[in-house]
Write a structure and sequence with these properties.
Blueprint: H1 2-6, H2 8-17, H3 35-62, H4 70-75, H5 81-84, H6 86-99, H7 101-121, H8 124-135, E1 141-144, H9 154-157, E2 161-165, E3 168-178, E4 186-193, E5 199-205, E6 211-215, E7 228-238, H10 253-284, E8 286-287, E9 290-291, H11 296-325, H12 330-354, H13 366-378, H14 383-395
Parallel strand pairs: 1-4, 2-4
Antiparallel strand pairs: 2-3, 3-7, 4-5, 6-7, 8-9
Helix pairs in contact: 3-6, 6-7, 6-10, 7-8, 7-10, 10-11, 10-12, 10-13, 11-12, 12-13, 12-14
Length: 401
């Protein structure tokens, strides 16, 4: 800044070049990546902006899923990044959501929950037979935990049951809000074993007799994701479909902790999506003969969106460090989810306000971003429950158990 003050020509050239942070990396946080990692990050971002964002509003309006995107998405070879570099994986998840929340959620359910569960908790046979097609997106996975009457209390009140019958398991129960559930080839169903009362995971193929999935309609958020109500009526599966690494609900802790981190990265991406649309609109929209970006109130709102997004991103970078070191706990994941989604809610509201009346039309994209934020705010542990997990950690007293 001193150089610019002392050099009027440099100051004039800087203004002519435009603002230096159109991509919102205000603190140059991508400098933390190696050159190879940065190339991967930029390639993924370019793909999302080129192939995902342009089609998202149309599919969102129609509440349909773009199956033709799957081969292109598979070609990006995004699966497996989270196990090699948590920061790079998180930034890519952020950029995926920056392009569209729904399709990002589809991939997160498929990879972060289903594929990761098979990899970490499955048998050698399951890894050998299921993962190749799943990682190549030739087969789609879903993760069925939530039930119609049980969400936050699912670990204690699960009603879906599994009963051993010779060399088979028989499953009965209902699941709700299951992402990808209406078209998934494999659904990882969590059920209470009648023999020991413990919750275990079972792979159920969609063609099994007694398995029925019905798409949930009339959603106002994440409309591209095909959530389903699933009914299991005496569904028989081979004994080998049980994930042997799931002997109790405690075995899901790593999956659920890491999925909270994934959703926290989504909350960051949602804020940068807001910034992109609001900044562009503010520069293009003219009122009283000037772009609205020239007015103090609009600049204040854009600055707050930038602050919220950047603070959230900084927090998530520390979360990735904790993942790398093996020190990440559910308490920290809950703090990330609660904090980032709270900042996200403020950011999308500010972005919608900047667009005025146009902010409630998906024609200007912001309405989709604003609505999708509500799904992020609620799934993978509601804001309230995550806040109470943090409260328990800092006081030693549980407010909900």
């Amino acid at each position: 800044m001193t150089l610019l003050k002392e050099d009027p020509q440099a100051l004039e050239e800087a203004h002519a070049a435009g603002p230096p942070y159109p991509e919102a990396d205000f603190l140059f946080l991508t400098d933390l990546l190696t050159e190879h990692e940065l190339n991967q990050y930029q390639a993924a971002r370019a793909f999302f902006q080129r192939e995902v964002r342009p089609i998202a509003v149309d599919y969102w309006n129609r509440a349909e899923f773009p199956f033709e995107l799957l081969p292109k998405l598979a070609a990006q070879q995004l699966s497996g990044l989270s196990t090699s570099n948590h920061l790079l994986s998180g930034l890519i998840q952020m950029e995926f959501t920056r392009a569209d929340t729904s399709i990002s959620t589809f991939f997160g359910v498929h990879h972060e929950l289903f594929a990761t569960a098979i990899h970490e908790l499955g048998s050698d046979w399951q890894r050998r037979t299921l993962l190749p097609n799943v990682l190549a997106l030739r087969k789609i996975g879903a993760f069925a935990l939530t039930e119609p009457a049980h969400g936050s209390d699912i670990s204690r009140e699960m009603e879906t049951t599994a009963e051993r019958d010779g060399d088979a398991w028989v499953l009965n129960g209902t699941k709700r809000w299951i992402g990808n559930g209406s078209f998934a080839d494999y659904v990882l169903v969590w059920a209470k074993d009648k023999a020991d009362g413990e919750i275990k995971g079972f792979v159920v193929e969609k063609e099994r007799a007694g398995f029925h999935a019905e798409t949930i309609i009339n959603k106002t958020s994440a409309r591209i994701v095909q959530n389903a109500n699933i009914t299991l009526t005496d569904v028989r599966i081979p004994f080998a479909n049980w994930l042997p690494g799931t002997k109790s609900f405690r075995d899901t802790n790593t999956l659920l902790r890491n999925s909270r981190i994934w959703v926290s990265w989504q909350a960051v991406g949602q804020q940068f999506a807001t910034f992109d649309v609001a900044r562009s609109y503010a520069l293009e929209r003219h009122q009283f003969g000037k772009p609205i970006a020239s007015y103090q109130l609009i600049q204040s709102q854009l600055a707050q969106i930038m602050a919220n997004a950047t603070m959230s991103l900084s927090l998530m970078i520390q979360m990735s460090r904790l993942q790398e070191s093996g020190r990440l706990t559910m308490d920290q994941a809950a703090l990330a989810k609660a904090s980032c989604t709270e900042r996200m809610r403020e950011s999308v509201a500010l972005g919608r306000s900047i667009l005025g009346g146009n902010g409630i039309s998906t024609d200007f994209e912001m309405a989709k971003i604003f609505a999708d934020a509500e799904a992020i705010y609620s799934y993978e542990g509601s804001h309230e429950i995550n806040t109470l997990i943090v409260g328990r950690a800092i006081t030693g007293i549980s407010a909900f158990i």
